[in-house]
Amino acid sequence: MIVEYANPIIVITLAVLLGQSFFGTLGMLLSGQPLKTAMQCGFSLTQIGEFAFIIASLGVSLGVTSHFLYPVVVAVSVITTFLTPYMIRLAEPASAFVDAHLPERTRNFLNRYASSSQTVNHESLWKRLIVSLVRITVVYSIICVAVIALSFRFLVPVCREHLPGIGGSLLAAVVTVLFISPFLRAIMIKKNHSPEFTTLWKESRGNRAPLVATIILRVLLAVSFLMFVLVGLFEISVGLIFGVAVLLVIVMILSRQLKKQSILIERKFFQNLRSRDMRAEYLGEKKPEYAGRLLSRDLHLTDFVIPGESSWVSKTLAELNFGKKFGVHVVSILRGKKRINIPGASVRLFPQDKIQVIATDEDLVEFGRAMEQASALESNVIEKSEMILRQFLIDRDSPFLGKTLKEAGIREKYHCLIAGVEHEGEPLRAPDSNEPFAEGDVVWIVGENDDVYKLAVPAEDVDF
Predict the structure, then answer these.
(1) Which of 80, 118, 305, 448 has the fewest CB atoms within 10 Å, i.e. the most exposed one?
(2) What are phi and psi of 242, to 5 degrees?
(3) Domain for residue 433, yes or no?
């Protein structure tokens, strides 16, 4: 049956592959995505899925479509499903080809459009402002509710017990209002001078009414909290309580001391709230927040650990010149529990340093290969570093005859270590630095191959 309907199957398959790739890419470009991201998204949409032949089966069963449509749709669905992974793999080289052959003007236009769309669509000023306001209002309102509840549960009874009459209620009201005032001020004032608020205010007169509304709503919320406290403590008219609450709100807004206290409390609160994340970022256990924003520009933040045997160890960043050689830029160096952000050219790399670099996928791959090559040990280095044990005899022609260990300079000149000395048939003993070598002494030395053979007399060597 597939052979019978081969022509429509091929035509529809090609139409789906080309049409979905083209229109999917076009749609992503219009939404403000870069060319590479747009083509990757468009090429991943080329399958029509099993739902298509479910619809075809339903159409055939209801008699509203031809019978040949069902096998065609099933075949196209299967073919496009199997071809989609290959289309996804093809997206990156295809985007590189298109980018290389685009006119310069078109490429610049797409880059500018993507930048402006990212700012307008994905970082909407209104969205950021509203989210910030809601978060601040909810968090501080919960704190105010908790303070008021604790005050009415514990503070008010104690004050009324020790100060009967209006005095106890007044003291409880003053203490409660003092405790919640920094949080109420933050609810009312916070974000009123933020870049988002200021930009929206200057951008359009139509934004000013909603912005003023956000301020009024927050002020009314603060007045409500104060009225709740006053109504619970004093039996006076609601109008008078409202006037006192409004007066207290004005004092809170104008108080510089309260402003400073509010800022300190907020800073400490969010510092404690984010302390675990901040510590994880500082120690390199978690990627910083800006790492996610790099992806839309085909840039990645990646960690590399400098091996102890790497030839890069003890060299400065200026000497290594990663930016020019590999196109990567070192953002931070993590050395134990110490973090060096934006290291200078004179900073040296040490074994087990973790470096955080920014680069494209291709540059990171090339950088990783270069790091492996810098850490590879050559076979001749391994052979040369082998340590061996040898002995040699002090005879009448030996340059060491009559010299002490210090005067012989065996460690300094030949880079060998004297393991022991056999003197006049005595057992092997540790060398005495002040005792001169005598004729007939057998000296045992340890060192690398080349150094030992330079020192020892080959005819008298004994291998162990």
Answers:
(1) 305
(2) -60, -45
(3) yes
Highest mean pLDDT among 247-256, 289-298, 450-459: 247-256
Same domain flag for 150 and 225: yes
Does residue 215 share a domain with residue 104?
Answer: no
Q: What is the pLDDT of residue 316?
A: 92
Lowest mean pLDDT among 46-50, 162-166, 186-190, 325-329: 46-50
| Residue pLDDT, tens place only, 110-161 | 777 766 555 444 357 788 889 889 988 998 999 999 999 999 999 989 988 8
Angle (CA) 119-270-340 rounded to 5° is: 75
Q: Report CA-CA distances (Å) from 198 to 126, 148, 186, 194, 267.
A: 11, 34, 18, 6, 22
Helical (H) or strand (E) element with 113 = helix 104-117
Residue 434 amino acid letter: N
What one-character-per-residue DSSP string does 13-44 give? HHHHHHHHHHHHHHHHHHTT--HHHHHHHHHT
Residue 202 confidence (pLDDT):
83
How many residues in total does the chain contain?
464
Predicted local confidence at residue 355, as pLDDT: 92
C-alpha–C-alpha distance, residues 103 and 430, integer Å: 80
Are residues 209 and 71 both part of a single domain?
A: no
Cα(439)–Cα(423) distance, integer angstroms: 9
Residues 150 and 257 in one domain: yes
Distance CA 164, CA 148 (A): 21
- What is the rounded distance in angstroms from the CA atom of residue 181 to the CA atom of residue 173? 12
Whether 104 and 135 share a structural domain? no
461: pLDDT strictly greater than 70: no
- Classify the C-alpha dihedral 8-14-17-19 as positive or negative: negative
Expressed in angstroms, the distance from the first to the final Cα of the chain is: 81
Per-residue confidence (pLDDT) for residue 464, from 0 to 100: 38
- Predicted confidence at residue 121, as pLDDT, reads 41
d(CA 197, CA 192): 6
Same structural domain, 101 and 129: no
- 345 and 208 part of one domain: no
* Domain extent for 331: 290-376
If one counts every other C-beta atom within 10 angstroms of the C-beta of residue 200, the result is: 18
Residues facing residue 341 across a β-bridge: 332
CATH code: domain of residue 329: 3.30.70.1450
Phi, psi of 393 (to 5 degrees): -100, 135
Number of structural domains (the chain) is 4
